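$ ./design --mode recover --in tokens.txt
reading tokens...
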């Protein structure tokens, strides 16, 4: 038996056209129970007391208190209540003490070298390795190739 929608299509055909499953179409949301409200209330209290705790640690605390709940339910309630913690980014520290970069005083005092990378029209990588005098800005050597090994650099 096919149920026909207001457009004259069956539910099966309508669901396939918009790309959802019929089980999703037929799903009825269950009302929140008293037990869920109690869990939600206790979760909020614990989150207020322990501000740096995420849902996983709060889940363990709720389990210890005797609540028989699934971790996925706790995660859903945690999100719904807006208790989500932002992840802290680690502060990047300098590995060594910084010193001033020395200024070149005459020709051939300080040389610089670096790898420059680009890609060709055929999408192959191109590496360029210039050696430059910092004082005169003269380029003494430049190597260009698709691959420059450490041996070649030395």
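writing sequence...
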């Amino acid at each position: 038996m096919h149920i026909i929608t207001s457009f004259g299509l069956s539910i099966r055909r309508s669901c396939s056209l918009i790309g959802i499953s019929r089980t999703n179409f037929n799903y009825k949301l269950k009302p929140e129970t008293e037990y869920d409200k109690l869990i939600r209330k206790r979760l909020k209290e614990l989150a207020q007391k322990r501000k740096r705790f995420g849902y996983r640690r709060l889940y363990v605390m709720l389990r210890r208190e005797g609540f028989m709940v699934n971790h996925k339910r706790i995660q859903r309630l945690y999100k719904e209540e807006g208790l989500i913690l932002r992840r802290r980014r680690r502060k990047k520290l300098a590995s060594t003490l910084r010193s001033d970069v020395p200024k070149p005083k005459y020709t051939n005092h300080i040389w610089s070298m670096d790898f420059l990378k680009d890609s060709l029209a055929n999408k192959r990588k191109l590496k360029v390795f210039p050696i430059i005098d910092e004082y005169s800005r003269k380029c003494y050597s430049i190597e260009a190739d698709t691959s420059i090994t450490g041996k070649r650099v030395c």
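exit 0
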